[in-house]
Design a protein that fits this description.
- The chain is built from 14 helices and no strands.
- By secondary structure, it is mostly helical.
- The two termini are 19 Å apart.
- The relative contact order is 0.11.
Length: 342
């Protein structure tokens, strides 16, 4: 029975993990920007649930011989060169002074002083160009359009150009986490809640790692799902936790993170506060000791990562790091200890 449970958990984690890279790519945008609806090459993302579910790469990009470099990276260069050509050509007719020069030349020609028929044409030919040259500038040919070298700001860099999320890391991590939770929890009702919440938690970690952001469409439903799923598990025989302590744990951990947010808004994002609600409910299910261990482990992992950045890369105290993955990893450590102890 235990082996079958582990296999089911592994298959569930792998299948749901395969759906994470596309969702992570669509969610990984800056604040106030709409969710992505096209792949890096510009192909519309199609599939179930308005394109949110599907393989990491769209069908055209997955075909053999498809370009690996996103087409969006070449768009600013092409548009700038195309704009330079028409603008230079369209300016030439407006700057052409030839009608004005032709109208001014006959009025400025002093023809009454001519005594011989042959002199008038000579005077006209000498005076007209001088007067026309003084009245209006000589028309010049429009310069031929030439390519404009794009500025460095116009060329997307690998850090700003949209790219797919990793295709293999998310499924592997999700499968490993699901197997670990199944091995620690066993055939208890709360295991269904852990398996259902794990893919969303991994998705949040991937998005926060990419853009330092925890989207509300993921954090708030995760907290609501934790409350509902554990509430249903508490009604079944064999449950090893308490739904009431889970609710109190969510309020306690969420309130603690909210206090940190009020003290230092630049150091703690409000998305972390919303994520703490869900993690507190899960950790509180096994009691206050597990809640403390899981919450403290998140800070410990984050501090170790920050210290590593300082030592290896010379990061400073103000260097921003995504804290969501460490919160989720710490909560996982607490859940494993709590499930084993129960």
């Amino acid at each position: 029975m235990d082996a079958v449970l582990l296999v089911v958990a592994a298959v569930w984690g792998a299948v749901t993990g395969l759906l994470i890279p596309r969702a992570a790519y669509r969610f990984a945008v800056e604040p106030e920007e709409p969710w992505r609806t096209a792949c890096p090459a510009g192909h519309p993302l199609a599939g179930p649930v308005r394109g949110w579910l599907g393989p990491p790469r769209c069908a055209p990009c997955a075909e053999p011989g498809a370009p690996a470099t996103p087409a969006a990276a070449e768009t600013p260069v092409r548009s700038e060169v195309a704009t330079a050509g028409p603008s230079a050509t369209a300016t030439a007719p407006e700057a052409d002074p030839s009608p004005t020069a032709a109208a001014t030349a006959p009025q400025a020609t002093p023809s009454p002083t001519a005594t011989a028929p042959e002199a008038a044409p000579d005077v006209g030919r000498e005076a007209a160009p001088d007067t026309a040259r003084e009245a209006t500038p000589r028309p010049t040919a429009a310069p031929a359009p030439h390519p404009i070298t794009p500025t460095p700001a116009a060329i997307p860099t690998p850090a700003t150009a949209p790219v797919y999320a990793p295709r293999l890391l998310a499924p592997v991590v999700t499968a490993v986490v699901c197997v670990a939770l199944a091995a620690a929890t066993g055939a208890r009702p709360e295991l269904a809640a852990w398996l259902a919440l794990t893919p969303v938690a991994v998705l949040l970690a991937v998005v926060d790692r990419r853009v330092h952001r925890l989207p509300d469409p993921l954090t708030l439903p995760l907290a609501a799902a934790a409350v509902l799923l554990l509430g249903g598990a508490a009604l079944l025989p064999g449950a090893a936790g308490s739904w009431t302590s889970g609710l109190l744990g969510g309020l306690a951990l969420g309130g603690f993170y909210f206090l940190l947010f009020l003290i230092n808004p630049n150091g703690m994002g409000f998305g972390d506060v919303k994520l703490a609600l869900a993690l507190g409910v899960a950790l509180g299910w096994y009691g206050w000791a597990v809640l403390f261990v899981g919450g403290f482990a998140g800070f410990l992992f984050g501090a170790a990562y920050g210290l590593g950045l300082v030592l290896l890369r010379g990061a400073g105290r103000k260097t921003g790091i995504p804290f969501g993955p460490f919160m989720i990893t710490g909560a996982l450590a607490g859940l494993l200890l709590g499930a084993l102890a129960a």
